[in-house]
Design a protein that fits this description.
This protein has about 575 residues and is an alpha+beta fold. It is about 35% helix and about 20% strand. The strands form 4 sheets. It has an 8-stranded antiparallel β-sheet with strand order 9-10-11-12-19-16-15-14, with no helix packed on it. A 5-stranded antiparallel β-sheet has the order 3-4-5-6-7, with no helix packed on it. A 4-stranded antiparallel β-sheet has the order 8-13-18-17, with no helix packed on it. The protein is globular. It starts with 9 loop residues before the first helix and ends with a strand.
Amino acid sequence: MNLLGKATDKNFWAQVKDNPDHKDALDAILRAYDECCIGEIETTKFSKFRLFKDVGDRTSYQEDFFKRQHRMYTMAFMCLIYPENEKYLELLQDTIWEICDQYVWALPAHIENIEVNDNCELDLDATTMAMALSIIKTTLGDRLHPLIKSRIDYEIDRRVIKPFFEKRWHWEYRQNNWTSVCTGAVGCTIMLNRPELFELVRDRLNEDMQDYLRSYREDGVCVEGPGYWSYGFSYFIEYAEMQRAFTNGKYDLLSNEKIKKISAFLQKLFLDKSVVVNYGDCGADVTVPAGFMYGLKTLYPNDVQLPPKDKLTIGPHYFPGCLRAFTYFDPSFAAADISNSEEYYMSDCGWFVKRTPKYGIGARGGSNGESHNHNDVGSFILSVDNAQVLIDMGGRPYTRQYFEHGTRYTYLETSSRGHNVPIINGKYQANIPGAHSTTSFENGVFSVDFKSAYDIPELKKLVRNYSFSDTGVTVCDNFVIEGEASFTERLVSYVEPKIDGGVVDYGKLKIKFDPSLATASYEKDVHAQDLNIDGSLKKSVDIYLLNIEVKEPKDSFTFYIEVE
């Protein structure tokens, strides 16, 4: 039974290097070879492994971990494309040997107790490593040395399949990208490497995938953002397609209409040709694996629109997706021509996106209890000329402290103080997982009721209304605060504002308000881009926090965003 389609066809790989249709994917592999495959293989070091627990640093260990992993993935492609070069096979087998010797396939950040000698933790990386090794063994077959194949089988059984059978794992209940990635990778590994065991866990795996799908409402929105959508949903697709082939169509998770809506998620998020809504921990420079999108386009040609080419990436960091960049590519595929006149109201999650010839805006309701949550209910992003002006910073570099509840919302990136939402009575939004906003879109006005995001008893009402014109957006905050009150509009940008009375100048974008009702000022902070081992800033970019302080807050305040 062929579960990998063209990936196991030697004739297909024989024509890749001379086929101009595969030039982009081939060039990506050759670049990865230069970056990851020259020189000696990095070995694991205990001094780096322990840094996460000792000081919270993830990067030092993970850089070596991923370079070694990407080396293996890249060499597998080199072996498929250039089978005549025995050097590539030798380098691949050396790397597989090193990975099979590796103490643990999970990352230190994902191990509950790293001081216990247990190297069979199942996380995102252990499970996907097993899947990748299973694919490599299946596609290269007898070209691999018998001992290499035997070690692959032994390590997959010991590190992944046996632990999965022994207990239920926390990610089986999380309803986010973890559920899909780990479940999909384990399921595909079993179908490829231990097919006789699949029937024993099929129902469990499928129920885990149903749990993952429950994280989406009927509007198909991934509240974790587009980066985590492509990561989690890609492994759902891998598993669903493989299971359909494995069971000769008896079990087909792709027949659900909801899957089409989830597949079309990304195309609703564009604010301009390259600007994508990036709530939560997703960075502003959103890209998605090309092979993943080619697969969705193949499955749902009438529903899925490919993004612009600069939003598609090809690289061995996501091995199954990189494989699909070759096997699912179709020369008839065309990148989308993003229309500059669209609007989408995603009512189930409370998101709204509008594109016009002059600007794009993404506004949100939602809650402050989402996966990869930021306290940003009621916030918005506004883009002009293919760049965010009123911004969402996305996340900061991951550390242990960044994910600890006691410290997570002390950071500018996660706190509402770093988002485009009001400061009320000197307070920012609270992290109240059960507090949800309500939204509506009627007569061209998008409204968000988000009083519950603030733990302020005296705040009795807070509704933000957005209305739109060809040249800008009017934002009106309606509120009721008992007793003495203060109300400050907070707006965030990478651009330093120029303030002149009731006009705040960001270049082509200007904020206008009645200067008799409020005064504007700004302060400067920084958005972390790189950290030292101890978590201190190594690299950052300036952030400008505009404060429009309402002089006598009574029942509403309105400001107008004008775009030239």
